[in-house]
Design goal:
The strands form two sheets. The chain has a five-stranded mixed sheet with strand order 4-3-5-7-6. It has a two-stranded antiparallel ribbon with strand order 1-2. About 40% of the residues lie in helices and about 15% in strands. The chain starts with 5 loop residues before the first helix and ends with a strand. By secondary structure, it is α/β, with parallel strands linked by helices.
Length: about 170
């Protein structure tokens, strides 16, 4: 299940065909020009390496992780952890909770994390979503932890030296 409507998928497949990027034989779709498709989709191949980075989180017991909405689905698929939200329109309340938590005060973050049973916080400062929190609420919870102002109820968790992630246990 992708969360995409059949109308959207059909329109995208028609656009690929119109642009000469795919051909169909019976029920099979073949991508004829991967480089052009990657360019058209603004694809960054570095994204594919997140799986190894996230798998490092498997050293910790399975739990609910508070993370960026855009990172939630990848977290669920590549680790044994749960995530609070993903970028799906049917998950509006959880998405808003993530935004309010990162934009709000540390106490507001903690209350929202508790509401969802989250016991770990994982952030990726290089994700595009993080720039939203920094621009919208520079003094909010995310802005504070981004500047190294971490509340004493967050306990740093060890990750590989080259990891783009930061992780804390929520106490």
């Amino acid at each position: 299940m992708t969360g995409l409507t059949s109308v959207h998928v059909n329109r995208m497949l028609q656009a690929l065909k119109r642009d000469g990027l795919e051909t169909r034989t019976h029920r099979m779709v073949a991508i004829d020009d991967w480089k052009t498709l990657a360019c058209a989709g603004d694809f960054n191949p570095d994204y594919l390496h997140q799986d190894n980075v996230l798998q490092a989180l498997n050293r910790f017991p399975a739990q609910t992780v508070f993370t960026h909405s855009d990172l939630g689905p990848r977290m669920i698929v590549t680790t044994h952890h749960n995530a609070i939200s993903g970028p799906y329109h049917r998950n509006g309340e959880a998405i808003l909770d993530v935004h309010h938590a990162f934009d709000g005060t540390p106490d507001e973050f903690r209350a929202i994390a508790r509401k969802h049973g989250a016991t770990m916080l994982v952030v990726c400062p290089n994700m595009a979503e993080s720039t939203v929190y920094l621009s919208r609420a520079p003094n909010g919870f995310y802005g504070q932890i981004n500047r190294g102002q971490v509340p004493d109820w967050l306990e740093p968790l060890p990750l590989p030296k080259d990891s783009p992630l930061q992780a804390w246990a929520i106490r």
